[in-house]
Structure formats: C-alpha cells, structure tokens
Amino acid sequence: MRDELSEGDAQIGTYGPILRHLLTNDEHSVFSDEIIARVRGMIADIARQLLDELTTAADQGGERAHDAVAQNALVASLTAHPSLLAHCHALALEWHLTERLQARLALDPVLSPLLQALIASTEALTATHAMALLAAQARFAQQQRRMQLPLIELPGDLLHATLVSLRAFGGEGAAQQELCAKAERAIRASYDEGRSRLGLASRLIAAMGGGATAALSVGHAGAAMFLTALALASGQDRDLAVLATCEGQFARLALSLRAAGLKPQAIEEQFMALYPDVTLPDNFDQLGADRAAALLARSTPYPGF
Prior knowledge:
Blueprint: H1 2-24, H2 33-57, H3 68-79, H4 82-105, H5 113-119, H6 124-145, H7 156-170, H8 174-189, H9 197-207, H10 218-234, H11 238-243, H12 250-259, H13 264-274, H14 289-297
C-alpha cells in the first residue's frame, strides 16, 4: 500500500503541470486533442497489425476480429515504450506542421517545389528516388488522416521494440512463442528500412551533397524533407528535430538551424515561414555553428530521445 500510495502521489504531482500547459496553450499545443487522438490511433494500428500477423501465422488469415482485452493489453505494452511513443508523437506533430504550411503558405503536403525539381532531375537515380519519396509521402498523408502507421514505416530499432512487445504478449508457452516467432519472421521479411518514407528522404538528401542546403528551406522543401535535412545537418534525432518546430521550442529551432550551417538571415527566413511573430535574440549573429551544436548536445529532452 505504501508503494501504491507513493506512485499515486507521483501521478498527482504531474496533474498540475499538464493541466496548466493545456490551459495556457492554444490549438498548436503539442498535446492538443487532435495530436493525442492521432498518437493513440497509430499505436492501436500497430497493435492491430501485430495481431493480424499472429492470426496469419496461426493459419487463420480470413479472421481479423481481435479480442478487445488482448488488443488493449498489447496497446498498453506498446505505449509503455518511450521511444515508440515519442516517434508516433513526432509523426503527428509533423503532419500538423504539414497542414499548417499548406494553410499559411499554400504548400502542397505531398509535392514540394524541391521534390518536384528532384523528380525532373536528369540523373536517373535521383529522379527514381524522388518519385519513390513522392509516393511514400502521399501514403503518409493518407495514413495520418486515417491515424495509421504501417510496421514497414517504423525505424529499425522501433520495429524491433514492437516485436519484443509481441513476444512478451505471446506468453511463455512453447506453442505461442513459436507462433510469435513465425509472425516475426514474416514481418521482418517484408521490411526494408531504406524503402520507408524516412529512409528514402534521408537517402535523397544525402545524395544531394552540398545542394542539401536547399532542403533547409521549409517553404521550398516541405515539412518532410526539411525535418530530415535539419536532423542530418544538426546531428539530432529526427523526432527531436520535429519537436524543435513546435511552439515553446524557438531556442532549439534557432540553434538547430545554426548548427546545420545556416546564416542568421536564412534562419530568420525560416522563422518568417514558421513563426513570423518571433524574432531572433540580440547578438544571435555572433553565435557560431559549432557553439550552437555544443549547446544542443548538452540539452536533456524528455525520455525517448
């Protein structure tokens, strides 16, 4: 009882800050109802896919109705994984940013000017990868509207985490573990991280070499390529780069852009596109890229990053 009371006290201690945050932030909050619903939907979709694979492994391919209690238990197990939860949160925030750019700048959520230029490239491999990213981005738009996240779109370490949850869900019986192992083999056989949306974006930007600076213009590159380029150039995890574009994270955004090598004027242009009412601090132009990177390296974001 003492332990449970202690846990209850700790939980109550979080209520005030969360409630205060929700009351003092507008619809762009990182914890808006829409964002939370989208994260919950993606986690539930991952659980459904895992159960589908178990059903297929058991040679019950035509049956897709899963026990609600079992599905909720698997959802709870997945939700308890900080990095997976953080990734789903970042994807929901990315889509929110994509829609905001469409409303403010009339920027197409699928085909940005940069991606259009890469599709028209005379280099066949670049054009092919750009077309593949276009298709992947179109799927991402549909998946976000449906609050879905295919297993094949997860980064490799997070796919492994979901499979660990699947094994734990399967129990300790030999038959159930064999069933889980069969489902896992099928999932891994269909997985290729390089062909995922994030994998394609990273490959395409890396292939641009020095020209990748163009992807650091959010109005030219679009949210997906901008966020990938920002993460690669600043040495951050992409999910953390997504958070840098949220309200209340203006210092992280400015430092990330500076660490990525942008000059102060170019950074101001990105703020004009994202947050036109925000100005850079005095003497920001005296901050070097190395110093900005060092400040970011010493930051301590929430668990999951």
